[in-house]
Design a protein that fits this description.
single chain; 2 domains; two-stranded antiparallel ribbon; about 40% helix; binds calcium ion
């Protein structure tokens, strides 16, 4: 039979990391006298809190890792973007240099041709070529290293442009066209007049534009140089 004192104290559980166990009222009383019961309770609570802190600490570490991972990914992404942009810019500059070089080479080629032959040899009309029609270079020329635009009629990036227009199937060199970038209207045959005749055979100055059109890494682009050729 339990004593009255034993009946007075209910069974209590000791907190702790191990499995809960019943503490006999006598032992609890002894512990209470030694002051160890409260300490034990605190210790158990403390251990519990410590265990809880370990869990939080572990979760916090994962959060930290996640944050660091995100930062690294952002940094790597930014670096990759910078590298790609740098390569793209380098490619754009390379395309521009290729186009510039091709246009200048063509201008040099035109300067090397007999002056009176330039218009017929480099216009878009094969029928006025000297000798066999279509035997002259014509208006288009290839530029190596550049991709022609999708809608380019002749599939060639280079084009030579004169102040001309087609009249009854004949490409005429004209003085009376409104092309400010080529200085027109202008007296091209030196007769002191600006008329609406064809001056393909008697010009004494020849406006010309060399245009390079291509599709590059940034889409469709062009460069062009205009000049006035003299004999
Ligand atoms: Ca021709
Ligand atoms: Ca073309
Ligand atoms: Ca004239």
């Amino acid at each position: 039979m339990p004593s009255a004192r034993q009946c007075f104290y209910p069974e209590v559980l000791e907190f702790g990391p191990g499995p809960s166990r019943k503490v006999a009222p006598e032992a609890r009383e002894q512990n209470s006298r030694r002051g160890t019961n409260v300490k034990g309770m605190n210790a158990g609570t403390h251990r519990f809190r410590t265990g809880h802190r370990k869990g939080s600490r572990s979760g916090f570490t994962l959060v930290e890792l996640a944050i660091v991972s995100v930062i690294l990914l952002v940094a790597i992404g930014g670096l990759s973007g910078a590298v790609i942009s740098s390569r793209q810019l380098a490619r754009v500059n390379e395309e521009t240099a290729t186009a510039d070089s091709a246009a200048r080479r063509m201008l040099e080629e035109l300067h090397g041709v007999g002056f009176v032959d330039i218009f017929y040899a480099y216009n878009d009309d094969p029928d006025d070529d000297e000798g066999i029609p279509g035997s002259a270079p014509g208006t288009g020329f290839e530029v190596r290293g550049l991709t022609p635009q999708a809608n380019d009629p002749d599939g060639l990036c280079g084009r030579i442009i004169f102040p001309s227009q087609e009249v009854f199937g004949v490409e005429q060199l004209r003085e009376d066209l409104d092309i400010p970038e080529l200085g027109l209207p202008r007296d091209l045959n030196g007769d002191g007049d600006i008329d609406g005749e064809d001056h393909g055979g008697d010009y004494v100055m020849l406006p010309v534009t060399v245009r390079i059109e291509w599709t590059g890494v940034n889409g469709n682009r062009f460069v062009e140089f205009s000049t006035l050729l003299y004999p």
